[in-house]
Design goal:
heterodimer, A: 113 residues, mainly beta, six-stranded mixed beta sheet, B: mainly beta, seven-stranded mixed beta sheet
Chain lengths: 113, 113
Amino acid sequence: RKEVEQDPGPFNVPEGATVAFNCTYSNSASQSFFWYRQDCRKEPKLLMSVYSSGNEDGRFTAQLNRASQYISLLIRDSKLSDSATYLCVVNGRVSGGSYIPTFGRGTSLIVHP
Amino acid sequence: SQTIHQWPATLVQPVGSPLSLECTVEGTSNPNLYWYRQAAGRGLQLLFYSVGIGQISSEVPQNLSASRPQDRQFILSSKKLLLSDSGFYLCALILGPYTDTQYFGPGTRLTVL
């Protein structure tokens, strides 16, 4: 089983749709969780951290379920500009004083008019 | 806030040639630094990380090496490039041992012919 798994998609949705991505992780000792966004041929950029209590930033909502070891990202009222690859990241390992993030391979979202 | 610079932005090199990619950081000190590679259509692969000057940990044994000659400088090198070394090379940082959010530089796109 891969450490962090995501459905690669692509998710092809119309503008205004609500779309949800899930991510599962294998290390139950993982301590922190994130969603990143990566545009084509660009570096990943932090979208939001994920907390057990859930957190919301505008149209984006992230949830963590530790018992089931999965993380979700919900995007409401999709915009064309939301088209990107969304990376799930888990900090499950610490080595020599450094977090070693583990990245999922990403879920591709295409929002069309 | 911190800024990560990567040089060069793009590079085309013949097989068997040497490589040197540079990453420099501004606006912070004592960061944990990371080198990733992202092959076309693939996920992020952690290559090396460093928690301080001269301290390098290798994740994937291959024909690449890394060095950290100064606190805010991280270099990725190779003596002889392979075709499989083509990809998008990303430098990233985590601000220190008590934080867990990773930030990325703009990347270097390497094509080996």
